[in-house]
Automatic annotation (TrEMBL):
Its EC number is 1.5.1.38, 1.5.1.45. It comes from the Bacteria. It comes from Priestia aryabhattai (Bacillus aryabhattai). Residues 1-144 form the NADPH-dependent FMN reductase-like domain. This is FMN reductase/FAD reductase [NAD(P)H]. One of its GO terms (molecular function) is FMN reductase (NADPH) activity. InterPro entries: Flavoprotein-like_sf, FMN_Rdtase-like_dom, NAD(P)H-dep_FMN_reductase. Keywords: Flavoprotein, FMN, Oxidoreductase. PANTHER family: FMN REDUCTASE (NADPH) (PTHR43408). The keyword Oxidoreductase applies.
Amino acid sequence: MKLLGISGTIIGSKTGAVVQQVLEEAKLQHPDIEIEFLDLRDYTIQFCDGRDPSAYSEDTKKVIEIISSADFYIIGSPIFQGSITGALKNVFDLIHPQVFRNKVMGFIATGGTYQHYLVIENQLKPIAGYFRAFVAPSYVYAHTTHFNQKNEVADPEVLGRIKNLANEVVYMQKKLKVSELEILN
């Protein structure tokens, strides 16, 4: 099982740092899973315009391929102007909805105000619902004050949420796989 962490921004490092912490915690708790980190900063992704995925640039096709090959996800976004990034929304637009169907998603958001955690509830969870994905009940919201000078999460409560989310997504995905096998047999 491959858990893919997506840092859904092309600027900054806090969101990616939290996504990576969740991935590392998931691997620590469940050494049998494979983890991969996708940082949108590393790719030049074209805007979705409805064309066949094979007609996009190599970077865009690579991102589609990486996301499509994962079994479940940790998806993070900084919150700008009360919303997820345009880069992450564009990625969601590029991926066929069937790719996410019946897969587990866990969410992370970072921001400068404490109210921005609501973006997870009001934007990310409904997007997952559209995709017919399963959403982990927990999520991580990290305010800028939760980080130390090295951009590492230092707040004990947020670190606890990171551990909780890591465990939940793996637990849910494993249970779904068992249920899937039972249905097939």
